[in-house]
Write a structure and sequence with these properties.
heterodimer, A: about 325 residues, mainly alpha, two-stranded antiparallel sheet, 11 helices, globular, B: mainly alpha, 13 helices, about 75% helix
């Protein structure tokens, strides 16, 4: 078989080891951040049966809280705990006000209502913070970079971010698998009525799960604020990618969300770096945004219920 | 679903209301400004779009959150088909646009219909977003800025008819009546589809798909056919939207439009074609009203959407039909009692 050279995929030779390492770290870090957001989404669905389109807005909320609180309190170290407390309170209030009315409803109404919430939150953001792009300073302790070669550095803050995300992921696993609360939560996802008749206040459990999911997304936003800017519409971008993560991993599965998030993080990062030339046309990176969705399509063909999903949802 | 069973006499009343609406739409351009004629044209285009989505949501039970993709792609087909500063032939570009939308629905449908429930919602959204990024990030058709369509499609027939031009889409009244005819045709077509044996099968799938499958129906094919019909009709709406605005950009296939379309269907009353059309009209009126009130009109719109989802699950028409059904039932029991 002889192909003209032009038809063979052509990889840029510039991918030497340090560049590769940096992209690998970036991909993993992006993936871990996606996991924080997607785990909340998948938990809220898996346990409460709610499809929450407004989840991206919570990520945005976190980033804007980090911006304002860092300005107000003087440091990201103070902003983080304050932001977490605020977002948990917000989650409890939102669940009590709106979300709890959705449990008995069809997914259609959940989609419609949470879509309406997106518009509300986006507009409130515009009223409270305006439509400008903001930045948050990296705290001084973590502002350094590790030098890999003479001219390639990797920022410590990004490493710290990955570390925090990993710790949170382990914590989440521990709570769900090793504590009594986690046992109740898992039982509640299987049979709500049975748990309730055993004398457990399932309403309260749901409220906690929703607030925790919201806080996870908001915390991801706070962590990301110093590395990416804080801008209008930032939540929507992330939301759709998180949907892809959840679909790949299997809805309701936390392990699935982890695997899906890392996969997406790597595919997205390397998709932007590698240049693929077919017949003289550069396909990527212009179309790098599409690679993630193509991966989803392939996985859907192979396992429509996602990598870790159970059939029959 | 309680939206069905509106009582025996409701169809008569329904037909009467429908005829009054039709007469109002027929006469309207005679009495009002150009602005309103164009506004109602836009509303009717969106009504076609909403009815096509209602075939999926209300009649097949498929909640598609990516319906704008088929709408937008048809608009882009028109933009491609029109040579710059010249008109594309309506008779070539319209079937082409609808065919491309239908084909797209077929391909995407093959993937998304492997899933159901929440997966289906997420995956339809993800595929529509993928297309959005194709048009947004590449220079295929103007990127973020979109492209202008300087001249509306030309309705002139070929040589065999001596180049006769039955109507001129550049004329806003002509465009209005063409769209009105299409709205009525779409309504009749969908009504026929829903009342056909095919329609009975998709209605069965909506209520209980495993049972339909065990009765021997290849449900996947029925759902796919419904998906393709809806996509093709959405393409027709998108084609005329692009022709009317003279402009296409990636937002035409963005998720805000998909979300609005769901809102239209539910606001009017899903599972009733007239309801979807009514919802489209109401939604556009609300948008106009809110935009006049404040710069932050999306807040009011979002609030209304939340309100409709919580308080009006059967939409305007569904609520009226339920009320009518109760009234008829009350009268009937009066008669048997007396």
């Amino acid at each position: 078989m002889i192909f003209p050279d032009a038809f063979l995929p052509y990889l840029e030779p510039a991918v030497d080891f340090p560049t590769f390492l940096i992209q690998l770290l970036n991909g993993v870090q992006y993936g871990l951040l996606l996991f924080l957001i997607a785990s909340g989404l998948t938990l809220i669905f898996g346990i409460m049966g709610i499809i929450n389109l407004a989840h991206g807005s919570f990520y945005m909320l976190g980033a804007y809280l980090a911006f304002s609180l860092t300005e107000g309190l003087g440091s990201l170290w103070l902003a983080l705990p304050a932001g977490i407390v605020l977002s948990v309170l917000f989650g409890l209030a939102l669940e009590w006000l709106v979300i709890q009315r959705l449990y008995a409803r069809d997914h259609l109404y959940q989609v419609l209502l949470t879509y309406g919430l997106i518009l509300v939150f986006e507009e409130l953001r515009s009223i409270l913070w305006g439509d400008d792009v903001h930045g948050v300073k990296v705290p001084e302790l973590l502002a350094a970079s590790i030098s890999l070669t003479d001219n390639l550095n990797y920022p410590v803050y990004r490493l710290a971010m990955s570390g925090v995300c990993l710790v949170l992921a382990l914590g989440l696993w521990w709570v769900l698998r090793r504590t009594k609360l986690g046992m109740i939560i898992r039982a509640g996802s299987v049979n709500r009525d049975m748990v309730q008749s055993l004398g457990i206040d399932i309403t309260l459990i749901y409220r906690i799960v929703f607030a925790a999911g919201l806080a996870l997304a908001a915390f991801a936003g706070m962590l990301a604020a110093p590395t990416s800017s804080v801008f209008p519409g930032m939540g929507n971008q992330v939301l759709i990618i998180c949907f892809v993560v959840v679909v790949i991993g299997g809805i309701g599965s936390v392990q699935g969300a982890m695997i899906g998030a890392i996969l997406i993080g790597l595919v997205d990062t390397f998709g932007k770096v590698l240049t693929l030339e077919v017949a003289g046309f550069q396909l990527l990176p212009q179309l790098s945004g599409v690679t993630v969705y193509l991966m989803m399509a392939v996985i859907l063909l192979w396992r429509p219920e996602g990598l870790f999903g159970s059939r029959g949802r | 679903m309680s939206a069905a069973a509106p009582g025996r006499r409701a169809p008569v009343a329904g037909v009467a209301v429908l005829l009054v609406c039709l007469a109002a739409l027929l006469l309207m351009p005679l009495g009002v400004d150009k602005f309103y004629v164009q506004l109602v044209t836009k509303m009717m285009i969106m009504a076609v779009f909403a009815m096509s989505l209602d075939l999926l949501i209300g009649f097949t039970g498929l909640v598609s959150f990516g319906h704008a993709a088929y709408f937008g792609v048809a608009g882009y087909v028109l933009a491609y088909a029109a040579p710059q500063y010249q008109a594309a032939s309506l008779w070539v570009s319209l079937p082409l646009a609808m065919a491309v939308s239908g084909l797209l629905a077929l391909v995407i449908g093959l993937f998304v219909l492997r899933t159901s429930g929440v997966y289906f919602i997420m995956v339809t959204l993800a595929f529509a977003q993928m297309l959005y990024f194709v048009f947004h990030d590449t220079k295929l058709a103007g990127g973020t800025d979109g492209v202008y369509i300087y001249v509306r499609p030309d309705a002139a027939l070929g040589e065999w008819a001596g180049g006769w031009k039955p109507f001129d889409l550049e004329n806003f009244v002509h465009l209005y009546y063409v769209v009105l005819v299409l709205l009525v045709l779409t309504w009749i077509f969908l009504r026929r589809v829903i009342d056909s044996p095919f329609g009975r099968v998709i209605a069965g799938i909506k209520v209980n798909e495993p049972r339909m499958r065990s009765l021997g129906y290849a449900t996947f094919r029925y759902k796919l056919a419904s998906f393709v019909i809806a996509g093709t009709l959405a393409g027709m709406a998108g084609y005329f939207a692009a022709a009317q605005f003279g402009f296409v950009n990636p937002d035409m296939l963005g998720w805000h439009l998909s979300g609005s379309a769901i809102m239209m269907v539910i606001l009017g009353g899903m599972g009733t074609l007239g309801g979807a059309a009514l919802g489209a009209f109401m939604m556009m009126l609300l948008e106009l009203l809110f935009q006049g009130l404040t710069k932050h009109w999306q807040l009011l719109m979002g609030g209304s959407i939340v309100g409709v989802a919580l308080l009006l699950p059967h939409g305007l028409l569904g609520t009226v039909a339920a009320w009518w059904g109760r009234r008829v039932a009350a009268k009937d029991s009066e008669r048997t009692d007396g």
